[in-house]
Design brief:
single chain, 312 residues, alpha/beta, six-stranded mixed beta sheet, 23% helix
Length: 312
Amino acid sequence: MCGLALTGTVAGLPPEPAGAETARTLAPGEEGSLLEECPPGRAGQAARVSDPDAAVPEGGELTPQQAEDYDRRFREALVPLRGQEMQAPRNVPVVVHVISAEDGRGDVPQARVDDQIEVLNTAFSGGYGTDGADTGFRFELSETTRTVNDTWFTRFDEYRDTIRAELHRGGAGTLNVYTAQLGTGLLGYSSFPQDYEAAPDQDGVVLSHDTLPGGGRDGFDLGHTGTHEVGHWLGLFHTFQNGCASPGDYVDDTPYEREAASGCPVGRDSCPRKKGDDPVTNFMNYSDDGCMTHFTEGQARRIVEHWAAFRS
């Protein structure tokens, strides 16, 4: 896998292209740079899984080289915007595409779709904790589409390019959310804003239908898989990107973290040579939904800048 290698298996994204090299993971106590040989410029998909001790789905985690490439493209896109005031949009239009089976599985009620939008608005306004930043982003549901298709529901990843091309609505500033059955372990994944221009009809967030509020996914049914993946859609990396190696997740006020958190550990410090305990309660971690409380001010600035650079 061209990414940070973990143990175990998870049903999820399709196999990577032939020829990708395997990443080297840092040994315990090692805090140098991560180097690897993944092809530059290959589009990434950032996934969230329910068990961080299992392998991230193929293509579901950015390699250090991919993250560096995304950041380089981000900084280049900001050059012509220097001196301009950058602000979050007043409202981001959201189109939710509910894909279900003929027997009714996955047919998410409209009330739960509405609840997911409310969760996004509370999370991005800093409403879940006293340490949360108000990012300025607000979300407004503009449409819910419903598609009954057994094959699309149960084999979304196999047909995802076709599904997204057929259902996608709007432009770079419209958030498209797709719900379906993603398989054991996989909660959701997202595209990055840097890839919109090359593949506009593949832009958006994919969520396992049972992760929306009230969906019954044990530990993950408060809607924060949606919060997490929209964070990626707006340009954020995982808090554990690059482990203890510089530059981490490219945000100055999120402490370094060697690996994803599970559950809601207290006082966890997996990079003791770096300042601060692990950002366990940050929305860009893998902690349980009930543990997640905030984005930081640095993350808020970064998504505003990504919006200006790629989605405005």
